[in-house]
Amino acid sequence: SQQGEEDPQALSIQEGENATMNCSYKTSINNLQWYRQNSGRGLVHLILIRSNEREKHSGRLRVTLDTSKKSSSLLITASRAADTASYFCATGVGLSGGYNKLIFGAGTRLAVHP
Amino acid sequence: EPEVTQTPSHQVTQMGQEVILRCVPISNHLYFYWYRQILGQKVEFLVSFYNNEISEKSEIFDDQFSVERPDGSNFTLKIRSTKLEDSAMYFCASPRDNRPNYGYTFGSGTRLTVV
Questions:
Q1: Contact B101 A30 (CB under 8 A)
Q2: Would you give the DSSP letter of residue A56?
């Protein structure tokens, strides 16, 4: 498999439920980022977690990182219909002090039903 | 939050023609990136640009591709002789807040359709 593989590929839940998406990667990373993409639109940065961090919160988002297992998870709590989108993890790799190219996963398509 | 602007939003071109995609990154950034996303597939790194030079390019970024900064602020991605398989969304990106480890701001993309 390739760097940054998410699972599940698709997730369908009801409003108010929590959504958990997982991401695995293979190589050493400087950071791991999560992006959201509405259909046919651009990528929106959600949250970044550095390789020396284990957990990070931002509003209804919670990200964990386990570098020993080379995996991360994104939890969206109390989901809303407006959270319907594709979610991608992306690993920042490279040498240049944080300005890294991103290696994206295939994404999880989240559908939140009212 | 500062924006990254891409034009055009949609470009249709005939196979073999040259296309130029444009991007206005967040100002005063030295780093700049182009990515592409074939429909239904993952986003792929194409090229990074640092201080007016290409710093890294992927295997996808072959001799048909070039990137320039024609006027000191705008960036262009040129595909010299388009192929059907070049049909994709093309995104440019700048580091957020001009600081490392803060993620990236992506433009809304150009959808390129080669017919």
A1: yes
A2: E
Counted residue by residue, chain A has a size of 114
Structure token pair of residue B45? 């790194």
Nearest to A63 by CA among B92, B103, B42: B103
- Measure CB to CB from residue A41 to each of B42, B44, B108 and give the nearest one: B108
Report CA-CA distances (Å) from A109 to A59, A83, A84, B41.
21, 10, 8, 12
In chain A (114 residues long), the average pLDDT of successive 10-residue segments reads: 69 96 90 90 92 95 96 97 95 68 91 96
Q: Which of B55, B101, B108 sits opposite A48 (nearest CB)?
A: B101
Interface check B96 vs A, CB under 8 A? yes
CB contact under 8 A, B43 and A88: yes
Facing residue for B105 by CB, picked from A41, A45, A102: A45
Q: What is the pLDDT of residue B70?
A: 82
Q: For residues A114 and A84, give the distance between their C-alpha atoms in angstroms, rounded to a whole number.
A: 11
CA distance linking residue B45 with residue A95, whole number of Å: 16
| Strand pairing report for A55-58 and A61-66 | antiparallel
CA proximity to A47, closest of A65, A61, A37, A60: A61
8 A C-beta contact, residue B6 and residue B108: yes
Separation of alpha carbons B36 and B14, rounded Å: 19
Contact of A91 with A25, CB cutoff 8 Å: yes
